[in-house]
Amino acid sequence: MSALLLRDLRLALRAGGGFGLGLAFFLIVTVMVPFSVGPTPETLAVIAPGVLWLGALLACLLSLDRVLALDWEDGSLDLLATAPVPLEAVVSIKALAHWLTTGLPLVLAAPLLGVLLNLPAPGYLWITLSLLIGTPALSVIGTFGAALTVGLKRGGLLLSLLVMPLYVPVLIFGAEVARRGASHLPLEAPLLMLAGLTLGTIALMPFASAAVLRVNLR
Amino acid sequence: MSIWEYANPKKFLTTSERLLPPLWGLSAVLMLGGLIWGFFFTPDDYRQGATVKIIYLHVPAALMAINAWFMMLVASLIWVIRRHHVSALAARAAAPVGIVMTLIALVTGAIWGQPMWGTWWAWDPRLTSFLVLFLFYLGYIALWEAIDNPDTAADLTAILCLVGSVFAVLSRYAVNFWNQGLHQGASLSLDKEENVADVFAYPLYACMAGFAVFFVALVFYRTGTEIRARRMAALIARERMAADA
């Protein structure tokens, strides 16, 4: 299993595009926001936590079709399915690799991009922390979406349509933590809900992902 | 006699065809009766005036929007556990009906909200979770349409329905939480059921029953269509194979 993780990470690093593209997308979304809502610092400060969360979510979504598609095309997914490792573990590793190559860089980039959006000072800690807690859930849920659409020729747009509604609770609680953090409000409740969502999805979603992957592989 | 007999498409078709005319009739009587009773023979509300009468479309549609998803969840479970094709096709047949009900609830809600709240749309928890439900329906229908192999499509949509149900419930609570966090005043979330007086309630019950029977009839009808479409596809495939041979 660690060999699989290392393989995925190496592929993502050497094949290029993998996490660089997600980061670049995050950057460009953040840059486009002031163009669309105007450069007033007060406006930007209000929307900054939400925009950063939405940008990170979209960057995550954009990179989902890479999670399984390449392995599906060259047949290594079939080999993995017949390997003496449960398929649930394989999809968990895939999600972990996706998080390490996409989610983690986004978490680290978010405070930097916060500067561009005039994020209030206490917000930096909480945007980083909420993304750190929330992005694993995005990767795990996204892997389910990728497993659903892996057999389809033009699955990209459908993948977004399927995954976006599933992201709603994570986005709500995550952005709530960041927003409350930025304006000094009590945030234990959304923080705990976000952590609960992440732990719950990490525990349960691999079973659903493996189930749909088995259907697609048969 | 067991309910699983209707897993046989032939048996399902003959029975549902026998049931359909009385179901259509009953739903027409209940819906028309309830709507006419509600629209013309109930007094205007002392605060809302005649606008209150949109309740006879809004509430039954919203009720059926949620129950249609629930029916799809049960049908999907039956398909996953017992592999009865009719069950998967019934779930598929119910989805477009459910999405239309959701749309009716959203649109009538907007039309009702405009004079009452002064706005077509507000990010009230109820409204928002209905919008999310609409998105879930969209994804479910799109996935059915996207996959060619009918059994693969049935399996994948069934699992999507199960996972989606969990996340739909989660979204409902998340949205509740989110809005309270935003603005404290609950001035928008009128609890409609509590204030309804008997004069309004009886025609409302008739409309709700009418919508429910209408939904059952539509699902029977559409499931029959799906079964026939499946048979035709099988016949065409057989003919093509015979022609090739």
TrEMBL record, chain A:
Q: Molecular function (GO) terms listed?
A: heme transmembrane transporter activity
Q: Where are the transmembrane segments?
A: 12-37, 43-64, 96-117, 123-150, 157-178, 190-213
| Topology term for the membrane | Multi-pass membrane protein
One Pfam family named in its UniProt record: CcmB
- Provide the function of this protein: Required for the export of heme to the periplasm for the biogenesis of c-type cytochromes.
NCBIfam families with a match to the protein in the record: ccmB
Name assigned to this protein: Heme exporter protein B
- InterPro entries linked to this entry: Cyt_c_biogenesis_CcmB (IPR003544), Cyt_c_CcmB_bac (IPR026031)
Keyword check for Ribosomal protein? no
Naturally occurring in which organism (per UniProt) = Tritonibacter horizontis
Q: Which GO terms describe its cellular component?
A: plasma membrane
Report keywords, A-Z.
Answer: Cell inner membrane, Cell membrane, Cytochrome c-type biogenesis, Membrane, Transmembrane, Transmembrane helix, Transport
Keyword field contains Transmembrane:
yes
Automatic annotation (TrEMBL), chain B:
Q: Boundaries of each Cytochrome c assembly protein domain copy? A: 23-183
Q: List locations, semicolon-separated.
A: Cell inner membrane; Membrane
Gene Ontology cellular-component terms listed? plasma membrane
InterPro entries assigned to the protein according to its UniProt record, in alphabetical order: Cyt_c_assembly (IPR002541), Cyt_c_biogenesis_CcmC (IPR003557), Cyt_c_biogenesis_CcsA/CcmC (IPR045062)
* Protein's GO biological process: cytochrome complex assembly
Pfam families given in the database record: Cytochrom_C_asm (PF01578)
Please name the GO terms that the record assigns under molecular function.
heme binding; heme transmembrane transporter activity
TM spans, by residue?
A: 21-42, 54-81, 93-113, 125-144, 156-179, 199-221
**Protein family membership:** Belongs to the CcmC/CycZ/HelC family.
State what this protein does.
Required for the export of heme to the periplasm for the biogenesis of c-type cytochromes.
Which NCBIfam families does this UniProt record tie to the protein?
ccmC
Q: What is this protein called?
A: Heme exporter protein C
Source organism per UniProt: Tritonibacter horizontis
Gene name of the encoded protein: ccmC
